[in-house]
Amino acid sequence: MQGIGALARTTGVKVETIRYYERIGLLALPTRTSGNYRIYREEDVARLGFVRRARTLGFSIDQIRTLLDLADQPDRSCASIDAIAKEHLEEIDHKIADLTSLREELATRIDACSSNRVAECRILEALSPAPDFMKSAEGRSS
User: Fold this and answer.
1) pTM for this one?
2) Which residues does 106 contact at the CB level (< 8 Å), separation at least 6?
3) Residue ranges of the domains in the chain?
């Protein structure tokens, strides 16, 4: 058994994050000493390690909550877990596609920049709002 500081050092999770996970129910509220200090068991260390690893892999809090609920039912089929993982993989693939598109756009703008004068900078031009956007923004501020 260990206190919150030791749990934080063991798992690499900040104390405030541990408290947050307790508030939202990802971690069970720990038992307390007579001096009101939190005491964590090995199961808490393992559960927090699971949460940390899942967060590192980009799973949402809701997905992690569902995965933990499923993990507490070892005799169930893992089809639901597979579905969550596949959904998350699709989200990652979409993010990669978006980032690839952004990268290509920025690389194109950098290549088009002559680096002579700011007035001719294609990067600034690309970041500036289109005239149609400015007209609609002016209409909203009236």
Assistant:
1) 0.73
2) none
3) 4-76, 91-141
